[in-house]
Design a protein that fits this description.
Layout: H1 21-29, H2 42-45, H3 48-51, H4 54-77, H5 80-90, H6 101-119, H7 124-128, E1 135-136, E2 139-140, H8 141-167, H9 178-202, H10 207-243
Antiparallel strand pairs: 1-2
Length: 251
């Protein structure tokens, strides 16, 4: 099952200085990108050699895309209570710690590979200790570890985000018009539905795998939709800058 976001739980204790939190988070998730985008295979991104090659390059690309393309449009798309709490950290990126980006990406990847090493059939620790492949009820131990740690990690990330949002100070941050927000949400929902169907049809399998393919297909489609929205947002910003028209916003 796609527990990719759960991997962020492993880097939460490291989020303070001197590391770059966004790079830690991207590094913790980047080995799973092939689950959502058919640009490689999971086997190729979950090996040590990929940490310094494919994964590192893809991580830098995703990090640049997040900060330069996605971050500002998604912030303005968020509900007021959320965007006013995220405004300060969203604007806090500086070049002073840029040299720590690569080490942060590498550390994030290390947490992912170690975690998966205990929770997947081909993981090095599962191969080292065959007892992890023995069945405990309906599932082998490594699979129990995969599901249990995935659920626990997801809950840990959710609790962290909720607690952080409660404590974060609010500063004024303009949002997009309600019509724009509604249009993006409808388009994303439609894209997710289509992506789920295509994910199942592309790789029809057992019910377990069909559910997994539906989830990853939906996430990939929503991500593509939001990326397209972000590109249109910046085109609109550039157009307004050249014509002198004010941007529409909603508080």
């Amino acid at each position: 099952m796609p527990f990719t976001v759960s991997h962020v739980a492993a880097i939460l204790p490291l989020r303070g200085r001197p590391f770059v939190p966004s790079a830690l988070a991207v590094g913790a998730m980047v080995p799973d990108v092939p689950l959502f985008v058919p640009i490689s295979s999971r086997e190729e991104t979950h090996v040590l050699s990929a940490v310094f090659t494919w994964n590192l390059g893809l991580g830098l690309l995703l990090l640049a895309g997040f900060h330069l393309l996605l971050k500002r449009p998604l912030l303005r798309l968020a509900p007021r209570a959320v965007r006013e709490r995220l405004a300060v950290p969203a604007a806090a990126l500086t070049w002073r710690r840029a040299w720590l980006t690569v080490p942060s990406l590498l550390i994030g990847q290390a947490t992912h590979l170690i975690w998966d090493g205990f929770t997947h059939w081909t993981g090095p620790f599962v191969e080292l200790w065959p007892v992890l492949r023995e069945f405990a009820g309906p599932l082998p131990w490594y699979r129990w570890g995969q599901y249990g740690s995935g659920v626990f990690g997801g809950l840990a990330v959710a609790v962290f985000v909720l607690l952080w949002l409660r404590r974060a100070p609010r500063v004024p941050e303009p949002g997009l018009s309600r019509a724009t927000v509604a249009a993006v949400l409808v388009a994303s929902a439609a894209a997710g539905a289509v992506g789920a169907v295509l994910g199942v049809e592309r790789l029809p399998d057992t019910l377990y795998h069909d559910v997994s393919h539906a989830i990853t297909g939906a996430i990939a489609a929503v991500g593509a939709c939001l990326t397209a929205f972000a590109a249109l947002y910046w085109l609109a910003v550039g157009f307004r800058a050249t014509t002198g028209r004010p941007a529409q916003s909603a508080s």
